[in-house]
Amino acid sequence: MPRLTDVTREARRTTIATSMLRVMQRSGWARLTMADVFAESGLSAGSVYSHFASKEALARYVVERAHRVLLDDLEAFGEQRTANGPVVTPAALTRWLVERLDARRAYLPAMAQLSTPGTVDPALTQAIEAHLAEIRAHLAAMLAPWSEHADAPTPTAAVDLAIAGIVTTARAFVIRTGADDAITVDGFLASLRVVVAED
């Protein structure tokens, strides 16, 4: 049997990961089995197991890949905004993040399940927490110029509050789209503005 090239191997891993996410959308993480992944992907058990030893290993790959894509996109967004001059604001970052999530809406239910502590293996929960810490560090760096002019006791306090709001908003969007597939980014953000507006 011919050996897989790096490109072919990564394409095969992508096929397997996408198949797992589709199965999760239908049946959830708890009921997902590797046999479901074999059937969904059309690959043999040996082929799937040559890439992933278990559904937990496959989930770790999916989360790591999603994290890398988001981090790369976040860095590109920061570079673009820096090159164009204006300071990155929490509002701009929030809209950008919600739009990125919306672009991957089909996978949000599965990703929400994988990122809920206690629903998967401890190693995956730990990896997710490390990824979130890395994303928060990037957000903090991007918001540092904005924080110098924010209305808060210290720049650090302003950034911490902004990041908490951005992350909470992103999680709320994931949950909201699970309950109402018709919701739009503009509609979601408008609803937030209504409930936090001053009287």
UniProtKB/TrEMBL annotation:
PANTHER family: TRANSCRIPTIONAL REGULATORY PROTEIN. Residues 10-70 form the HTH tetR-type domain. The keyword Ligase does not apply. InterPro entries: Homeodomain-like_sf, HTH_TetR. PROSITE patterns: HTH_TETR_2 (PS50977). It comes from Agrococcus jejuensis. One of its GO terms (molecular function) is DNA binding. Residues 33-52 bind DNA. Keywords: DNA-binding, Transcription, Transcription regulation. This is DNA-binding transcriptional regulator, AcrR family.
